[in-house]
Amino acid sequence: MKNKAIIEKIRGKKAFISDMDGVIYHGNKLLPGVPEFVEWLKKEDKKFLFLTNSSERTAKELQEKMYRLGIDLEENVFYTSALATANFLASQRPHGTAYIIGEAGLINALYNAGYSMNNYNPDYVVVGDTRSYSFEKIEQAVNLVLKGAKLIGTNPDLTGPVENGIIPATKALLAPIELATGRQAYYVGKPNPLMMRIALKMIGCSNEETIIIGDRMDTDIIAGIESEIDTLLV
Predict the structure, then answer these.
(1) Global pTM value
(2) Which of 31, 137, 214, 231 allows an S-S link to 19, with CB 3.0 to 4.6 Å?
C-alpha cells in the first residue's frame, strides 16, 4: 500500500524535471523505459523539462540527439548548465567578456547572452565540459584569474557517464586552475538553487507541483532538497 501511495503521488505531479545523462541515456544509448515515460508525459499533458548539468551541447543539439534516438521533442524542453551560466553572468555583468574553456553549448550560450570572447583581460574565466582540454588553456586561465578575472564553473560534477564508463567533468577540469590560483570557482549548475528557480519559471509550476528525477545524490537530489522539490532517485 505504501509503494502504491508513493507511485500515485508521483503520477499526480503536474511537472517533471528530469536529468539526462544516466537517466535518459548513457552516451548514445537510450535507457529502457524512456520512450514509454516520454509518451506518458505527453499523453497526461504533464509539463516537463530535461535539465542537464552538461554544458557541452546546445539545446538544439540535444533535441537532435533525442530525435536520432527515436524521441521527437521541441527544443524548448531542454535546458543546460551552459544556458544557466550565460543567464547568470548576463544578470551580473551585462555585455561582459569571458575566456572560455568549453564546447559549442557554452560558447553559443554566452554569445547569445551578449558576451564577447576575450583572451587578454576578461571579466570571467568560464569552464565547462570539454574534450579539448590542454595545458596551454590551463596556463592561460590561471594567469587571467590571477590578473583579476572571476572563475566560473558551469557545474560541480567531477565525472560524467558515458557508454564505456566515465569521463572527467567540469569540476575535475577546474581543479588545477583552483589549486594554482588559490581561488574557488562559483558553480552555476545543479545543485545550485539558481538553476532550479529558472527551471520552475520555465515550466510555470510551483515547487510543490513538481518532482525532480535524477541519478546523482550530489547534484540532482540535493538540488531538489535545497529547492524544496520532491525528488526521485533512479
Answers:
(1) 0.94
(2) 214
